[in-house]
Amino acid sequence: TYKFTIDKREVTTTVITTEPELDRCLKDMLSTFTPKFSTAKRVVGLGIEKRFETVTTYNRGPKVCDRVAILTLCHGTTCLIIQLHLMRSPPLSLSAFLQRPELSFMGVGIKHSLEALETEYGIKCRNAVDLAQLAATVKNNDILPEAIALRQGICTTIQT
């Protein structure tokens, strides 16, 4: 777990490599949402990072493919970086979390991210909103480049 400050707010980022650790972190994230009797939708940011890997096919030899390696989930000042490529099988708790009806998942290009998660890991998401149009509308805003740079910096640090 790493903690850093952005605009005087402490952000907690946890890098997850095992299913038991993921189970605990998802449970902790759920506990930060508003009470169950609230009708407010709970919003979670979702993004993926892919990596290239070589796959040997039976009759064509080696083939280079890009696969989902990392899934990032963010809510409030909590960010979970889930290294799916290090897990033996698709985590059941993650699948259940993404299917919760009271949660909405948002991200730029989320449709493609969720298609990749379903194709490669069999993980489906119930409620998703693509922010691509919004991101394109506010692309001149100073916050967007900083957010992208931060995300790329975190992922580069973890992958190396």
Automatic annotation (TrEMBL):
GO terms for molecular function: 3'-5' exonuclease activity; nucleic acid binding. InterPro entries: 3-5_Exonuclease_domain, RNaseH-like_sf, RNaseH_sf. Keywords: Hydrolase, Nuclease. Coiled coil: none annotated. GO terms for cellular component: cytoplasm; nucleus. It comes from the Eukaryota. SUPFAM superfamilies: Ribonuclease H-like. This is 3'-5' exonuclease domain-containing protein.
